[in-house]
């Protein structure tokens, strides 16, 4: 069986509870810092799925793992945004939590304190080849590569997708965790991926090249299509060792940059599924990224 034109998007990745603390200026060590705090659903994989559904993908499936403590809440939140949740409920470990510290005085820039929780236990036992039935594209969250079970799942899912002719995309997800994993190991683990969507920092870490265009071009010698997300500078599309397109950003007034890259990825994949070329899809990603930074949290608004 090969990929189905106009078929479903399957996302495999993390489902997380985000605690977003928006403060202004430096944190005050040893005492109080005033903040506005909200608890919202998140996770890079889940966010990508939600933005893809928001952009009109007919069927978006999400394979993830949650603890019994929050399974119902996350299932309802995903369903409300048009995603079909395929969640393994773990009775032994808690759903992951991320503390998102957002400095409202620094263009909404965020810092994460991450407890991945049960997301680290998502592995080959959660996979079935039947998950690819009717699927046109498979997207893997890079957070999978930061645990042993996750790395095994990536290898299993890649093999299944290749056997069916389903193209695979991956977002490196975290410059901090990528530093610990190492560039050489990461690039070895993602062999067979068709599309890589790194941030500027991730592309630099993977190549050692400080110039964004040089880094994107170099990565595209290894991976057929590279779409390098540049935040306020838009995106670069590279293939075959050359930058093919420079896509401008969409002006926005940032409130919270959490999930902006996930929004870009979800909208980019939605556009590809709708028949757009990579540059057109990157432009759609920039529009979604701009919309995301003007919201608190990493998800789009609910429908209707």
Describe this structure in words.
With 304 residues, the chain is α/β, with parallel strands linked by helices. It has one domain (8-293): 3-Layer(aba) Sandwich (UDP-N-acetylmuramoyl-L-alanine:D-glutamate ligase). It is built from 9 helices and 13 strands. Helix 6 (200-207) packs across helix 7 and helix 8 (260-273) packs antiparallel against helix 9. The termini are far apart. GO terms for molecular function: kinase activity.
Can I get a quick summary?
It is built from 9 helices and 13 strands. It has 304 residues and is α/β, with parallel strands linked by helices.
Helices and strands, with pairings:
Layout: E1 8-12, E2 16-23, E3 36-42, H1 44-54, E4 60-67, H2 71-80, E5 83-90, E6 95-103, E7 109-117, E8 135-141, H3 148-164, E9 168-171, H4 175-181, H5 183-189, E10 195-196, H6 200-207, H7 212-219, E11 225-229, E12 235-239, E13 242-247, H8 260-273, H9 278-293
Parallel strand pairs: 1-4, 1-8, 2-6, 4-5, 8-9, 9-10, 10-11
Antiparallel strand pairs: 2-3, 6-7, 11-12, 12-13
Helix pairs in contact: 1-8, 6-7, 8-9
């Amino acid at each position: 069986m090969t990929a189905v034109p106009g078929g479903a998007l399957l996302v495999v990745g993390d489902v997380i509870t985000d605690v977003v603390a928006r403060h202004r200026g430096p944190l005050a060590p040893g005492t109080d810092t005033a903040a506005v705090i909200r608890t919202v659903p998140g996770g890079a994989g889940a966010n990508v799925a939600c933005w893809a559904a928001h952009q009109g993908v007919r069927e978006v499936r999400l394979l993830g793992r949650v603890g019994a403590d929050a399974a119902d809440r996350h299932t309802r939140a995903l369903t409300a945004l048009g995603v079909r949740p395929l969640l393994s409920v773990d009775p032994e470990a808690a759903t992951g939590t991320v503390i998102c510290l957002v400095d409202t005085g620094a263009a909404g820039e965020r810092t994460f304190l991450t407890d991945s929780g049960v997301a680290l236990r998502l592995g080959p036992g959660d996979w079935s080849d039947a998950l690819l039935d009717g699927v046109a594209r498979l997207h893997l969250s890079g957070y999978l590569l930061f645990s042993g079970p996750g790395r095994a799942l990536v290898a299993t899912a890649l093999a299944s997708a290749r056997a069916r002719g389903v193209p695979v995309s991956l977002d490196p997800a975290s410059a901090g965790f990528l530093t610990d994993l190492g560039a050489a190991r990461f690039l070895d683990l993602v062999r067979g991926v068709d599309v890589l969507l790194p941030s500027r920092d991730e592309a630099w870490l993977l190549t050692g090249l400080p110039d964004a265009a040089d880094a994107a071009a170099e990565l595209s010698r290894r991976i057929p299509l590279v779409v390098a997300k540049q935040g306020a500078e838009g995106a670069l599309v590279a293939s075959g060792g050359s930058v093919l397109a420079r896509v401008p950003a969409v002006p926005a007034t940032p409130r919270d940059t959490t999930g902006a890259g996930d929004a870009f990825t979800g909208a980019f994949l939605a556009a590809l599924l709708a028949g757009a070329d990579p540059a057109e899809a990157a432009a759609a990603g920039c529009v979604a990224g701009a919309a995301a930074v003007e919201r608190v949290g990493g998800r789009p608004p609910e429908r209707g």
